[in-house]
């Protein structure tokens, strides 16, 4: 099933719209809401990419394919595709994906130290555009009464 996804995603990339402006220059159409997100272990992390409101093609077309990637995932020693559009591609009940006309979010509930790392949001323009968000996870603060 995963191979079928990769093949279909590559086909979609090949036929996607351009992110080149009328002067022939590439324009940034996706950016992180926050490039660094810090949460405490056990809390919720919300990683959000926003779309350029000026780019009406991207805002209006739901045909654009979006993916969330976890870079250099230690368990797999490779990048891991977490989600395609609003579908989670891994079995982790802590993950929720939300997509609107202006943003794309990966929500991780009950964050733990293993979740710390770089997450990439990518859209299938030509050329593909992506942006990174670094998730930092702090240990829980435990107060002792003496």
TrEMBL record:
GO CC, one annotated term: neuron projection membrane
Q: Which Gene3D superfamilies match?
A: Immunoglobulins
Instruction: Identify the keywords attached in UniProt to this record, alphabetized.
Output: Signal
Per the database record, which ranges form the Ig-like domain?
32-132
GO aspect biological process, one term:
synapse organization
- Tell me the superkingdom of the source: Eukaryota
UniProt entry tagged with the keyword Signal: yes
- For the keyword Signal, the answer is yes
* Signal peptide feature range: 1-19
Read off the InterPro entries from this record: Ig-like_dom (IPR007110), Ig-like_dom_sf (IPR036179), Ig-like_fold (IPR013783), Ig_sub (IPR003599), Ig_V-set (IPR013106), Zig-8 (IPR037448)
Q: What is this protein called?
A: Ig-like domain-containing protein
């Amino acid at each position: 099933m995963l191979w079928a996804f990769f093949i279909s995603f590559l086909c979609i990339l090949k036929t996607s719209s351009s992110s080149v402006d009328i002067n022939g220059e590439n324009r940034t159409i996706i950016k992180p809401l926050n490039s660094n997100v810090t949460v405490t272990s056990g809390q919720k992390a919300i990683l959000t990419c926003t779309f350029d409101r000026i780019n009406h093609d991207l805002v209006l077309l739901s045909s654009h394919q979006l993916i969330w990637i976890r870079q250099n995932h230690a368990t797999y020693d490779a990048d891991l595709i977490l989600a395609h559009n609003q579908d989670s591609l891994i079995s982790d009940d802590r993950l929720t994906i939300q997509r609107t006309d202006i943003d794309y979010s990966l929500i991780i509930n009950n964050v733990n130290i293993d979740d710390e790392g770089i997450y990439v949001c990518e859209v299938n323009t030509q050329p593909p555009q992506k942006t990174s968000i670094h998730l930092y996870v702090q240990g829980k603060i435990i107060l002792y009464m003496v």
